[in-house]
C-alpha cells in the first residue's frame, strides 16, 4: 500500500500557482496499478481517495498507522467503492459482495477487514475508493447502477445532456457524511456542471473515466472570478476545495464519479454562479 499526503490550500495562494503547481496540489494520477492499493490522503475534509487493482492475489484495505493513527482502515472512517473495471468481489468481514462494472458498495465504520478480488486476474476489477471520517456505524450495502436513483439533466443543445446516478445520499444508502454517485454524459455531449457552482459547506472530488486514450477533460477550478484549468486524462481524479468551482469540458463524452464530504449531505446545497460572473 502507498499513501500520499496532500495539505489544504487557500484561494489567495492558488491564484499564484502555475500549471505544474496546480497539478501537484489538486490532480491525482496513477491510482490504478495492477496488484496494488494506492491512496491519497487530503486534508481537505480529510478525504482519502484511492484505487485498488487485484490480479492474481487479493488486495487488502490497510490503514497507515503513522498517517491515520488507526489499527484498521475503518476504525474511524466509512468508505464508498465503485467498480470501474471487470467483475470483482469485495469481502467485508467475511461477507462477499460481487460488483459488476459501475456497481457501488458502502462500508461503514467499524468493519475490520475489507479485501478486494477480481473474478478474472487477466481482466481485473478496478475499484475506485472514497473515504471520509465517520462517527457511527451504518450497514454495509451494495447498490447496482440499475438500482441507483437517476436524475436526467441538460440538453444536446447545450452539449450537457447527462444522467446522474446517486448511490450514497440522504434518500439512498445512508452514511455519516459521505455523498457519492456517478454522472454519465450521453454521446455528443462534453460539458459537466455548467452553469457551475461552489458549496462552501463541503468539498468534492471528481474522478474521470471511460475516456479514449487520446481524450482529455479541461477541468475548470478556482474562485468564480479567478478560474484556472487542469488537463485531466482517463482514470485521474481532482480535488475541489469548498471555495472552488468544479466543472469541465471534454474532447468527447465521458463518465465521472463525484464524492462529497463536509457539513451536510443535502445534494442540492450549492451556491450557483451566474454565467456573467465567471472570469
For CATH, the homologous superfamily is named as Jelly Rolls
CATH topology descriptor: Jelly Rolls
Uncertain runs with pLDDT below 50, 5 residues or more? none
Largest sheet: 7 strands, mixed
Report the β-strand fraction as a percent range.
35-45%
Distinctive features:
4-deoxy-L-threo-5-hexosulose-uronate ketol-isomerase activity, KduI, Jelly Rolls, 279 residues, 7-stranded mixed sheet
Protein topology:
Blueprint: E1 2-6, H1 11-14, H2 19-26, E2 27-28, E3 37-42, E4 48-52, E5 59-60, H3 65-68, E6 77-83, E7 88-92, E8 95-99, E9 104-107, E10 114-118, E11 127-133, E12 141-143, E13 149-153, E14 162-168, E15 179-185, E16 191-192, E17 197-198, E18 202-209, E19 217-221, E20 228-232, E21 236-240, E22 247-250, E23 255-262, E24 271-272
Parallel strand pairs: 1-3
Antiparallel strand pairs: 2-21, 3-4, 4-11, 5-10, 6-9, 6-11, 7-8, 7-10, 9-12, 13-14, 14-15, 15-23, 16-22, 17-24, 18-21, 18-23, 19-20, 19-22
Amino acid at each position: 500500500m502507498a499513501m500520499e499526503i496532500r495539505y489544504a490550500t487557500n484561494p489567495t495562494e492558488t491564484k499564484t500557482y502555475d500549471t505544474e503547481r496546480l497539478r501537484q496540489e489538486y490532480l491525482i494520477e496513477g491510482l490504478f496499478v495492477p496488484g496494488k492499493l494506492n491512496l491519497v490522503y487530503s486534508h481537505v475534509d480529510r478525504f482519502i481517495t484511492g484505487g485498488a487493482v487485484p490480479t492474481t492475489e487479493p488486495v487488502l484495505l490497510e490503514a497507515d498507522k503513522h498517517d491515520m493513527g488507526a489499527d484498521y482502515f475503518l476504525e474511524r472512517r466509512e468508505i464508498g467503492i465503485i467498480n470501474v473495471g471487470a467483475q470483482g468481489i469485495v469481502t467485508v468481514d467475511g461477507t462477499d459482495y460481487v460488483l459488476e462494472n459501475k456497481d457501488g458498495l458502502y462500508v461503514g465504520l467499524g468493519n475490520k477487514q475489507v479485501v478486494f478480488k477480481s473474478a478474472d486476474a487477466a481482466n481485473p476489477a478496478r475499484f475506485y475508493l472514497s473515504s471520509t471520517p465517520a462517527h457511527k456505524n451504518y450497514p454495509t450495502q451494495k447498490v447496482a447502477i440499475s438500482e441507483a436513483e437517476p436524475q436526467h439533466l441538460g440538453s444536446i443543445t447545450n452539449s450537457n445532456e447527462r444522467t446522474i446516478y446517486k448511490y450514497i445520499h440522504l434518500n439512498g444508502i445512508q452514511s455519516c457524511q459521505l455523498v457519492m454517485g456517478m454522472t454519465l454524459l450521453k454521446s455528443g455531449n462534453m460539458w459537466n456542471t455548467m452553469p457551475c457552482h461552489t458549496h462552501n459547506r463541503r468539498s468534492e472530488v471528481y474522478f474521470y473515466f471511460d475516456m479514449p486514450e487520446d481524450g482529455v477533460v479541461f477541468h475548470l477550478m478556482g474562485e468564480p472570478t479567478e478560474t484556472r484549468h487542469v488537463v485531466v486524462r482517463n482514470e485521474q481524479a481532482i480535488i475541489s476545495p469548498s471555495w472552488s468551482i468544479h466543472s469541465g469540458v471534454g474532447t468527447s463524452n465521458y463518465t465521472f464519479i463525484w464524492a462529497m464530504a463536509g457539513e451536510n449531505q443535502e445534494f442540492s446545497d450549492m451556491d450557483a454562479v451566474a454565467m456573467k460572473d465567471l472570469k
